[in-house]
Amino acid sequence: MFFIVNSKKKSSQLHITAMQPVQMIWLVSLLLSIAFCQFISYDEFHRDHLPQLLSLTNDSDENVILRFNKTRIPGSKESKDVQEFIINYFEKLDHEWLVDQDSFEENGFSFTNLVFSSTIAEKYIVFAVHYDSKIEPEGFIGAMDSAASCGILLYLARFIDNVYSLEQNLIDRTISAEYVGIKIVFFDGEEALKEWGPNDSIYGAKHLASKWDQKNILDTIDLFVLMDLIGSDEHVTIPSFFRGSHFYYEMLSELEDSYLETRSKGTKSLVPTDHRFLELGRGVIDDDHIPFYNAGIDVLHLIPLPFPQTWHTIHDTFDHLGQEEIYKWAELISNFVINVVDLYRL
Ligand SMILES: [Zn+2]
Q1: Residue 25 pLDDT > 70
Q2: I need a surface site. Which of 28, 144, 184, 286 has the fewest CB within 10 A?
Q3: Which of the residues 145, 228, 287, 316 is marked catalytic?
């Protein structure tokens, strides 16, 4: 295993000194408009859409998170229903997302990863989650593992859609310039079918990584953000696991600080001063990021450690999700994507 330090953000600063006055005026007005939109439009978007899409109690037509409140065993009818729901959801968005259904068979099960790309770009930021649920114990829902994160990434897609539709002027130099794009990935088969091990786990992630290797897509991934076990009603800590993504972890932690300050509710999960895992220099948790991390991609693994107490028990249900925690993460991830894309602006 090894780390690749991303130098893009440092070299981009060099262009500022060579700027002509007209470019500088353009830049200042762009930055002002970004600031304006972040503090006004985005806040407004979150206020309107969080309760519509991610309420744990109000089961309206707009709600996306409650659609995952069922078992989602690979190849089952429930799994296919969820896949259909996700695809229909993206198809109804204003912006045209590119869809890739990556289906395959293994160990007598059929699996399907769903990949949605905002555009064809030179570089990508990937946001990933697994939508399958464990076979045992029977009736296992996996609300935080990882139904809640699925809902949050559908929210993110709606948020990005809003940015595309309403803030076109802001993204002309970035997303629409087809330099950096967003991929949202729903993995199937993260859970072991019988017992967790290298040959019985992360079926979807392994398959997609190998497909992306063959298609030379792995080289275009600048950051791989994986969400897992998010949204529990327990107070959790999410450590920084990798030196290569610590810059992004700190960025997210600053967003969390300002979120908690302005909302006066919710609790702090990120601890940027805790460098225990960075010093180890290797991953300590097996998850869907492994094949991508092994390919040298910077991984931001958003997973609580220790795991919440309901982990892999029949009690991992929607009753044990925390509404505020889900709203917090949906807003943080949305604002995070804007900040990351901003790194490509200059
Ligand atoms: Zn699990």
Answers
A1: no
A2: 28
A3: 228
**Does 21 score more than 50 pLDDT?**
no
- Hey, where are the domains in the chain? 8-342
* Sheet bearing 299-302, strands edge to edge: 98-106, 109-117, 180-187, 123-130, 221-227, 299-302
Spot the catalytic one: 132, 145, 188, 190: 190
- Any catalytic annotation for residue 91? no
CA–centroid distance, 158 to ligand 1, in Å, is 26
Query: 107-162, pLDDT tens digit by residue?
Result: 999 999 999 999 888 899 999 999 999 999 999 999 999 999 999 999 999 999 88
Query: How far apart are the CA of 1 and the centre of ligand 1, in A?
Result: 24
CA gap 224, 127 in Å, rounded: 6
Q: How far is the CA of 334 from the centre of ligand 1 (A)?
A: 24
Please tell me the predicted confidence (pLDDT) of residue 280.
87
The per-residue pLDDT of the chain, averaged, comes to 87
190 is catalytic: yes
64 by Cβ neighbours in 10 Å (0-12 / 13-18 / 19+) ranks as: buried
